[in-house]
Each structure stands twice: as C-alpha cells, then as structure tokens.
TrEMBL record:
Taxonomy of the source species: Bacteria, Bacillati, Actinomycetota, Actinomycetes, Pseudonocardiales
Family: Belongs to the thiolase-like superfamily. FabH family.
Protein name, UniProt field: Beta-ketoacyl-[acyl-carrier-protein] synthase III
Function: Catalyzes the condensation reaction of fatty acid synthesis by the addition to an acyl acceptor of two carbons from malonyl-ACP. Catalyzes the first condensation reaction which initiates fatty acid synthesis and may therefore play a role in governing the total rate of fatty acid production. Possesses both acetoacetyl-ACP synthase and acetyl transacylase activities. Its substrate specificity determines the biosynthesis of branched-chain and/or straight-chain of fatty acids.
Active site, UniProt feature: 115, 254, 284
Chain spans, region ACP-binding: 255-259
EC number: 2.3.1.180
Length: 333
C-alpha cells in the first residue's frame, strides 16, 4: 500500500434498475392522483419497482458487478454500501453484497445517510484511501425505498423508485481526472421528524398504528431545506477550491424533484443546461440516485471526460453534502 498519494480517483461506474417499469397512470389507477399532477409537481414520468424477491443486497450486487467491470478489475480492499433499506435491521447488508460479488473477506459495512448516503459513502471510501487503509474501494448506493412507502399514501408512493448504482475508487493523484474532493458534509438531527419511518426500528419494534411502519414525510418543509442546503453546500466546496459556479460543467444533484433541481440551480446561478436530470425515468432512488444519474448522463453523452462535475445531495436525517471531480474517461460497465 502506497500512502504517498492520497487522492481517491473514480475509475469505474455501474448501474442497475429493476426491470418493472411503473408509469404514473398505473399509480393513478390505485391512488387519488394523476399523471399530470405527478409530472408537473415532481418531473417524474415513471419509476422502477423491484419485485418482491429482489432486495437491496441483490440490486447492490448487480450494480457493484457492473462497476467492477467498468473499472476493468475486480480487485478491491473494501466495500461501502450506502443504504437506508438494508435487508435486515441487523446485520449490515454490505458483507452479503461482498460475498455475492465473490469478495468475501474484504472490509464491508453500511453507511446510512438516506438520500445523502452516496456522498457520505464516497467520503468514507476516500477516507479509507487517504488513511492508507485501502487502495481500492467499491462504493455502492442501493435502496428499495418503495417498500417503505405506504401503498395508500399519494404523498410518497408517486415519488420513490428502486435501484442501485456504484463506483470504484482507486488510490491516485489529486490532480488526475476522477480525483474526488474536497467534501462538505452536514447533518441536523433536530429535524429528523421531517422524513421518518416511526416504527420497526430498535427503539419501537411494534407499531401502535400499522401506518407507522411506513415513511411519513413533510414534503414542503423537505423541499425548502433541500434547496437551501444543497445550494449552501455546493457553494462551500467551490469556495474551498477557489472555483466559481461558472466553472461547473455538470451539476449532478440528488434526484428528489425536478423543481428542487431547478430551484437549487437558480439559487446558485447555474444555467439549466448544466443540470443533469434523470428523475423523469427513475423517480427518487435515495442512495442510488447520484450514480444512476451519472450513468444515464454518460449513456446519453451529456457527461463527457474533462467536465467538471459538482455532486450534491440532501436527505432525511437531515443530512446533506457535496463534492467535486473532473469526469475521467470512464463509461458505465
Ligand atoms: N396527487 C394529487 N394531489 C396531491 C398529491 C398527489 N400525489 N400529493 C399532494 N397533493 C395535493 C395536496 O393534498 C395539496 O392539496 P390542497 O392544496 O388541496 O391542500 C396540493 O396537492 C399541494 O400539496 P403540496 O404538498 O403543497 O404539494 P407540493 O407542490 O409541495 O408537492 C411534493 C409535494 C412533491 C412531495 C414536494 O413537496 C416535494 O417534492 N418535496 C420534497 C420531497 C423529497 O424530496 N423527499 C425526499 C427527501 S430525500 C430522502 O432522504 C428520502
């Protein structure tokens, strides 16, 4: 292990979506909503929903395998799984993902920062490399968030979708394309109630009301905090590098709502054509959102090697954070 070079460099990218496409009309058949409402209020046209036999671990294995293929090597020393829908409350899901990839024996653990999970997991992977603990790290975001949604709740069901995305990080030089950083990470636990699953955890195993096993969300408050915090955090990483918003070629933010993406870009003074948006076809996929958006932008060629990319996310907790990289010559595997 060489500790001289401390940057974590992105060297592989993978995505995986469950095959079942659920369009807005299908949701509108079951709930008091409409394709028009969902499209205009959220930007979502369809989302993927995992079948009952497919879990967070299964999706993570698919996306992780694709990222390793993209990196051209399946050698990694550690696996960090960002998820808030682990297969079990205990143990963590990451060791099962590692075993599923034939990587049994490596360090593997979960990071739960809900929709900010992928940015937190990237920072964790970069920290393992900077600390000389690992040379190559597989970072995966995988969530079956649809399972936390009350099938009768029109406030959450239309928004969330399932999926997984992953990247491989390797030890490299800070000025190489793909080098991550700086990072800006925050949390505010006083506002945990804005998006929470009240029961089923270790504090309250049994729900008094069955609805308490599902997510409750104060949408408008989350909306306001998401825009303000993502803009604040994006500015913080730019300031630390001496860059300006005009230096950003692609803004890849957590895909929660197209109006959140647009409002945040407006607050930052960022032209709309630099905002990467795939929410229309995947919905809010929680920890998988950023790598899925990166993969889609690579596929449609709107993300090119050499682009300066600003990643930013906001999620339950509350949590939020950002980082920067120059896009390397990497294609989804
Ligand atoms: N279909 C039709 N009408 C609806 C629906 C629906 N699915 N949902 C709400 N409405 C109605 C409301 O009842 C309300 O009606 P009223 O005016 O008669 O009272 C009206 O639409 C407006 O409701 P709002 O809640 O004000 O709608 P808003 O424009 O805020 O959109 C939404 C709601 C989409 C939830 C928005 O607030 C949002 O995206 N918030 C952020 C959510 C988010 O990002 N969550 C994830 C955070 S990340 C994580 O960690 C998981």
């Amino acid at each position: 292990m060489h500790k001289g070079h401390s940057a974590a460099v992105l060297t592989g990218l993978g995505a995986w979506l469950p095959p079942r496409v659920v369009g807005n009309d299908e949701i509108a058949q079951r709930l008091d909503t409409s394709d028009e409402w969902i499209r205009t209020r959220t930007g979502i046209r369809e989302r993927r929903i995992a079948d009952p036999d497919t879990s967070t671990v299964d999706m993570a294995v698919h996306a992780g395998g694709n990222a390793l293929r993209s990196a051209g090597s399946d050698v990694v020393d550690a696996l960090v799984l960002a998820t808030s829908t682990a297969d079990q409350l205990c143990p963590a899901s990451a060791p099962q993902v590692a075993s599923g990839l034939g990587l049994s024996g490596i360090a593997a653990f979960d990071v739960n920062a809900v929709c900010t999970g992928f940015v937190y997991a990237l920072a964790t992977g970069a920290g393992l490399i900077a600390g000389g603990i690992a040379d190559r790290v597989l970072v995966i975001g995988s969530d079956v968030f649809s399972r936390l949604c009350d099938p009768a709740d029109r406030g959450t069901m239309p928004i969330f979708g399932d999926g997984a995305g992953a990247v491989v990080l390797r030890r490299g030089l800070p000025d190489e394309p793909g080098a991550l950083g700086p990072f800006d990470l925050h949390s505010e636990g006083d506002r945990a109630e804005l998006l929470t699953v009240p029961a089923g955890g270790a504090k309250q195993r049994e729900a008094a009301d069955p609805h308490d096993y599902f997510v409750t969300m104060q949408g408008q408050a989350i909306f306001r905090h998401a825009c303000a915090r993502m803009a604040e955090s994006a500015r913080a990483v730019l300031e630390r590098t001496g860059l300006e918003i005009g230096d950003v070629d692609r803004f890849v933010a957590h895909q929660a709502n197209i109006r959140i993406l647009q409002a945040t870009a407006k607050q930052l003074g960022l032209p709309g054509d630099r905002v990467v948006a795939n929410i229309g076809r995947v919905g809010n996929t929680s920890a998988a959102s950023i790598p899925l958006a990166l993969a889609d932008a690579c596929e449609d060629r709107s993300l090119q090697p050499g682009h300066r990319v600003l990643l930013t996310a906001f999620g339950a907790g509350l949590t939020w954070g950002s980082t920067l990289l120059t896009w390397p010559d990497v294609k989804p595997g």
